[in-house]
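Open question from group meeting: does this chain pack into something compact, or does most of it stay loose? Before anyone orders reagents, we agreed to write out a predicted structure and look at it together. Recording both the input and the output here so the notebook holds the full record.
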Amino acid sequence: MKRDIPPKTAKVIKPTRKVSDADNWDQRLGFLMHDVSRLRRSVFDEFMKPMALTRSQWWILAHLSRNDGMIQSDLANVLDLGKAALGGLIDRLEASSFIERRSDDNDRRVKRIFLTAKGTQIIGEMRTHSHNMSERILQGLDTASRQSLVDMLALVKRNLLSIKG
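Structure tokens returned:
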């Protein structure tokens, strides 16, 4: 296999000025958003440990709390999981009595996923843990700053969804 190797006479061009942090604000923002998201998930995992829920399990329950009765394939798409991977998680959550599968009224081949009473109860506990965690991670921000943060992140999310199509 032939590789393109630059000739030895090629000049290496060095930057004429040092790149400042101000020039890299967008990269720093990207890393910061990623780091905050990753750290938040990791801290939330610790808050969920006493409930014996994995990240994947609490993520499914959280989505169902906002969209109970989702079609299993739609849930897989929203969570960006393969259908087989989601199926195993659904099996475990169903065995724990947090959710139940039901056939769709219009199409018996379609399975909808619903929270059970136990699932709804654990969602309440998750919300309490989430609120406590949010209070700790937002310590030092007043109510107006918190609302501004939410508004700005919501705008960023809308912009990202618009770009995604």
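Observations to bring back to the group:
Residues 40 and 70 are 26 Å apart (CA to CA).
The domain at 52-138 is CATH 1.10.10.10 (Arc Repressor Mutant, subunit A).
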